[in-house]
Design goal:
The chain is an alpha+beta fold. About 55% of the residues lie in helices and about 10% in strands. The strands form three sheets. Strands 3-4-5-2-1-8-9 form a seven-stranded mixed β-sheet. Helix 8 runs parallel beside helix 11, helix 15 crosses helix 17 and helix 16 packs across helix 23. It is elongated, with a radius of gyration of 26 Å.
Length: about 425
């Protein structure tokens, strides 16, 4: 037990909701602690993303204590307790299944670990020592079974138990080691790092959706650039996910993609929102451009070619990248706006400003300017135009080209392309 006098983390640093949950459970006679990443982050003087609570109450018992709560999850059942905006995730202590009962696949991956246990068992099934600390807000004490307090103070990320066994049980822990060390500036302990090179093939065996979750956490961690560098250093980047290969192996797009990631990190550090769709749109932009160029060279009209290129790239990436369909619409809107930024004449210019996706499209344009793909002048023009007075806007507009209107009335050979132009206009 590490007393407050030693660790110095006061109860006030725990979120309102997490205090309510631990107080409520303790008042009902249960044990309850703040656990995992939040305790680690507070010791590292960082602001936790969220607060998780662990308890010896079963999910049903937790539900009975808090009216505004619901049970979620199939693999392990958790309870979400709601306090206004805040959601506190409450898990019941779990135990590692004894070796002979464990259900694993042929590579040793755990298929089931949802047995209830006690506090000590719950600590042992967690991944890193820094993630296995239990903070009691009522006494301000920390319970530490694996030397996690000392490791955290030393900025050392160390696997609990035998790293070989723990990676075999769950290969995603290798990726977590990379992500957490990059995000928190922690050194991966030598024995924890050593087996990764030889075991990375085990990741092939993990469901794509779980890997995508981890990769997204990396890209949206606020330290995506460090994560990518760390992945390269550990030689983990190949085949981890096709999405990452796209990022790391794009000759033309690399500068653009790294700028997009840096920009994402910066936005997160300023507490601005970032949308996964924007990020995906950036990752795939140079593929879309290449497909579009090819079509235009083959004589297709630019706007129609853009629609075809987008669909082609999305269809191809869908199979490989596991990017969820729900982001398609926004990605396409962002891409389509790029063509429309080129046109700086007539009413269309004003209509563009009213587009709900204008801001995202404009941010995307600025990245293209910064990467050298398009002239800086275009970004500067839109930067000024969107906030300019009506007179200044009128001055800035380019004269409409004589052919513009006439061309639009001409009947189309390809109905699909015509429809595309109407949407784009
Ligand atoms: P973050 O700050 O990114 O949320 P975190 O450590 O809190 O990092 P979560 O995914 O929120 O990560 O997990 C919460 C806790 O659950 C971890 O601190 C760890 O104790 C435990 N945990 C998560 N994933 C695993 C895993 N694959 N194996 C063992 N324990 C895990
Ligand atoms: Mg967490």
């Amino acid at each position: 037990m590490i007393p407050f006098e030693l660790h110095g983390v006061p109860r006030e640093q725990i979120s309102y909701g997490a205090q309510k949950v631990t107080d409520g459970l303790q008042a009902a006679g249960y044990q309850a602690y703040v656990v995992g990443g939040a305790v680690r982050d507070l010791l590292l003087k960082r602001i936790p993303k969220d607060f998780d609570v662990a308890t010896d109450a079963t999910p049903e018992e937790v539900r009975r204590v808090f009216r505004r709560s619901r049970i979620i999850g199939r693999r392990f059942r958790l309870v979400h307790v709601m306090f206004g905006e805040e959601v506190v995730e409450v898990s019941t202590f779990r135990s590692m299944i004894e070796a002979e009962d464990a259900q694993t696949d042929e590579h040793g991956r755990l298929l089931r670990d949802n047995q209830f246990g006690d506090r000590e068992q719950d600590a042992a099934r967690r991944d890193f020592t820094a993630n296995a600390l239990f903070y009691d807000p009522s006494t301000q004490e920390i319970f530490d079974y694996h030397n996690g307090y000392a490791d955290t103070r030393k900025h050392l990320l160390r696997m609990i138990g035998d790293p070989l066994v723990r990676y075999r049980e769950d290969p995603v822990r290798m990726v977590r080691a990379v992500r957490l060390s990059a995000k928190l500036g922690m050194q991966i302990d030598a024995a924890t790092a050593a087996p990764i090179a030889g075991m990375k093939n085990l990741l092939d065996n993990v469901p794509q959706s779980r890997l995508l979750d981890e990769v997204l956490k990396m890209l949206l961690s606020g330290h995506s650039v460090e994560c990518i560098q760390q992945l390269r250093k550990m030689n983990l980047h190949h085949g981890l996910l096709p999405l990452l290969d796209v990022i790391l192996e794009q000759p033309m797009g690399e500068k653009f993609v790294m700028l997009a990631l840096r920009n994402t990190d910066e936005r997160l550090s300023q507490d601005k929102t970032v949308s996964p769709a924007f990020l995906f749109a950036a990752l795939l932009w140079h593929e879309v451009l290449a497909a579009w160029n090819l079509r235009v060279q083959q004589g297709e009209r630019p706007v129609g070619a853009m629609h075809e290129a987008m669909d082609e790239v999305l269809a191809r990436q869908k199979e490989q990248l596991a990017i969820p369909h729900r982001h398609d619409a926004v990605m396409k809107e962002i891409w389509l706006l790029q063509q429309r930024f080129e046109q700086r004449a007539g009413q269309r210019t004003f209509r563009l400003l009213e587009q709900p996706r204008f801001r995202a499209g404009f941010d995307f344009l600025l990245l293209r300017c910064a990467s050298g793909e398009v002239d800086q002048e275009l970004g500067l023009w839109w930067d000024e135009f969107q906030d300019a007075s009506a007179e200044r806007q009128a001055e800035m507009l380019q004269p409409e080209q004589a052919g513009d209107k006439k061309r639009r009335r001409k009947p189309r050979k390809k109905p699909q392309a015509a429809a595309a132009e109407v949407t784009a206009a």
